[in-house]
């Protein structure tokens, strides 16, 4: 007689807890991130932002001239390139908005376009008037 002959044919004991599904069992061995948020932090650090360009006095005078022209012909379509500061890093990005000027507020120092976009005057890099526009259809 062998060492385990007395228990070899007994039924397998059932566990007290219910059996896990294969998905639950696999989840125990799934990889986990010990450094939660590390990948996002590295991605944020690697993200490139632009520095705000400081305009010379001549460039500021040119913007003033264009602003005065806009006041004379309010129905003229324009393209405004302006800087938007990044919320998380030093720097930001330049955007271009196209439309008609609805209001130029000297006191609040902003330009309001017909589409509702409010652009701070101090952040404007360039204003392109419709007579300066190219004929590539980019303002249609």
Describe the structure.
This protein is an alpha+beta fold. 22% of the residues lie in helices and 26% in strands. It contains three helices and five strands; from the N terminus they run H-H-H-E-E-E-E-E. Strand 3 and strand 4 (118-120) form a beta hairpin. The longest helix has 16 residues, at 57-72.
Key features?
single chain, 140 residues, alpha+beta, SH3 type barrels
How are the secondary structure elements laid out?
Blueprint: H1 22-27, H2 38-46, H3 57-72, E1 77-85, E2 92-105, E3 110-113, E4 118-120, E5 124-129
Antiparallel strand pairs: 1-2, 1-5, 2-3, 3-4
Total E-strand runs: 5
Q: Structural class per helix/strand content? A: alpha+beta
CATH class annotation of the domain at 57-132 = Mainly Beta
CATH-assigned fold name of the domain at 57-132: SH3 type barrels
Provide the low-confidence segments as ranges.
133-140
The helix fraction, in percent, is 10-25%
What's this entry about, in short?
The chain has helices at 22-27, 38-46, 57-72, and strands at residues 77-85, 92-105, 110-113, 118-120, 124-129. With 140 residues, it is α+β, with helices and mostly antiparallel strands.
